[in-house]
Amino acid sequence: MRNLIRTELFKIFRQRKTFYAIAAVFVLEAFIMVSAYYQGKEFLDVFLDNLRESFEFQGNLLNGNLIIYLVLNAFWFHIPLILMIVVSGFLTSEYKDRTVEAVLLQTVSKRQFILSKYIAALVFTAFILIVLILSTFAFSYLLFGKGDLVVFLDGLSFFDSAEALERLLLAFLVGSITMFFYATVSITLGVLFQEATITWIIAALFLIGTTLVLRLEFDSDLVNLLFFPKLTDNWQYVFFAEIPYGVIVKKNAVLIVYTLVFGVLGMRVFEKRDIT
Amino acid sequence: MILSAGDVCKSYDSLKVLKGVSLELHKGEICGLIGPNGAGKSTLFRILLGLVSRDSGSLQIHSESSKPLGGIIEKPALYGYLSALENLRVFARIQGLELTKAELENELLQVGLSPDRTDPVRNYSMGMKQRLGLAIALLNDPECVVLDEPFSGLDPIGIRTLQDEIRTLAGSRGIGILISSHNLVELGDLCDRLYVINQGEIIRHGPAREILQQAAKSYLIYGTGLKASKTLASADVEFRTGSALLHLEGPNIHQVLQHLTSEPGITLTACVPQTNLAALFEKTPG
């Protein structure tokens, strides 16, 4: 199994499209940072103008921490989109080139093969996230400096620079679980649809659908807890004045269950289906 | 016996692709499966190689090797962005074989590929890809190799080279080889035994020579003085420049050749059987 995963990673990093994806992430990050800068300015103008009359703010609030926070907001649609396209390609390209058949003609079981695909997809996702986190923090602090973070979620909250760093890192960590969910879904969609273009369309549709449903407000707590589109923005809880750790843990546990369900579904279908 | 399939059936929805197919393969034997396109050859091979499940029937592989069967289905599937050596390394590693560079290079040399080429295999000709596919199929020492349409897309020299390699595998390494084609010429002089499949059924099988003889309904005789031959005068024959196409049923060609050689003024240079594929693929009554 270790050899299979090693080989999967070797193949991933020998393909040009992997580097296009990494480059795309960087380009996207640059765009998001520029737009975050202007968005941040507008945000501060709108929310803080009134408060300036009653309070005195020290230091520059349009700093690296606010940029990272705004980047975080934008990431959870754009990055999964690139990720889903690339990750589903790990499998669909093997169907297209019929190498899935060539691999299964060796002493490799279907289960081992597809499991190695899922694990390699998760490792690749983790790699992209690490690159993303390091570059976001590095560029934001380098270009905009450190400072207090002001966010508006359940109300206007201020966090000093040290606490902001902790919360931002925690937010990335919590958001990563959503990324792993999307990566798993991508491989499962690859198993189900096999053809690359169809899989991309379905993956994009899945992501857009999830994002749209996320914005709907449901009255039922049960729906909010169990319906997976409502679980993909758990990272936002990290910026509540009091972090609701219980809610974060509960919702992420459900999301992990969903991830496992999608993974097991993909594995079962792959194992049962003939390779034609 | 290495491989034995009994009464294998497979359907896709209402379409019966295989209707009780049985075949067997022995060690060191080259066995051919011939049939027209859509006869069920690839489906049968996919079942033998475990890629497709069968609806019913038995499949027995008598081997103690960790990889009893190796194979190529249709064209060899390779990672086009990797070199030949890297492809071989990837396919070796996934099955737990940690081969050294020298060992991998030796595997390439054995199928006539140069280990010095480091460009991606997408640049390779079909013949070279087939050879690399064969090297991959042979990893982990299988006792039996299943090759589906291995000559497709190869030029005559490529076909001859691959045929020689297949003979070597069966002869010197004792590997049982099951090979399919829709072209009798490609299989004719290569195989020890032939199975003929059409519409999902094995319609005849036996020693390749016998099957070929059954399918030979005419013979192209090359020589001089053929037009003046008394033997051919009474036969169903078409004279061509330097040759005569003799239509003949049954195995009596040797008698005709004997008579021709005894006639004065006739020199025979060659006799090539002309196989009638339509008759070969026709199901015998009963």
N- and C-termini, Cα separation of chain A = 24 Å
User: Span from first to last CA of chain B?
Assistant: 29 Å
Mean of residue pLDDT of chain B? 86
Number of strands of chain B: 13
Order of helices and strands of chain B: EEEHEEHHHEHEHEEHEHEEHEH
Which class of secondary structure composition applies to the elements of chain B?
Answer: alpha/beta
* Count of distinct strands of chain A: 2
Report the β-strand fraction of chain B as a percent range.
25-35%
**Second CATH tier, the architecture of the largest domain in chain B:** 3-Layer(aba) Sandwich
Q: Please work out how many helical segments of chain A DSSP would assign.
A: 9
Look at the structure and give the mean pLDDT of chain A.
Answer: 85
Largest beta sheet of chain B, briefly?
6 strands, mixed
CATH fold name of the largest domain in chain B, please?
Answer: Rossmann fold
The share of residues in helices of chain A is over 70%
CA-atom Rg of chain B in angstroms? 22 Å
Number of helices of chain B: 10
Pfam family, one (chain A): ABC2_membrane_4
Keywords (chain A): Membrane, Transmembrane, Transmembrane helix
Transmembrane segments (chain A): 20-38, 66-91, 118-144, 164-185, 197-216, 253-270
Protein name (chain A): ABC transporter permease
Folded structure, characterized:
By secondary structure, chain A is mainly α. Chain A is built from nine helices and two strands, in the order H-H-H-H-H-E-E-H-H-H-H. Chain A has helices at residues 2-12, 16-54, 64-96, 99-104, 110-144, 161-193, 196-215, 221-226, 245-272, and strands at residues 149-152, 156-159. Chain A has a two-stranded antiparallel ribbon. Chain A is elongated and about 75 Å long. The mean pLDDT of chain A is 85. Chain B is α/β, with parallel strands linked by helices and 286 residues long. Helices cover 31% and strands 30% of the residues of chain B. In chain B, the strands form three sheets. A six-stranded mixed beta sheet of chain B has the order 5-6-7-3-8-9, with helices on both faces. Chain B starts with a strand and ends in a 6-residue tail after the last helix. Chains A and B meet through helix 1 and helix 4 of A and strand 5, helix 2 and helix 4 of B. Chain A: This is ABC transporter permease. Chain A: It holds the Pfam family ABC2_membrane_4. Chain A: Keywords: Membrane, Transmembrane, Transmembrane helix. Chain A: It comes from Robiginitalea aurantiaca.
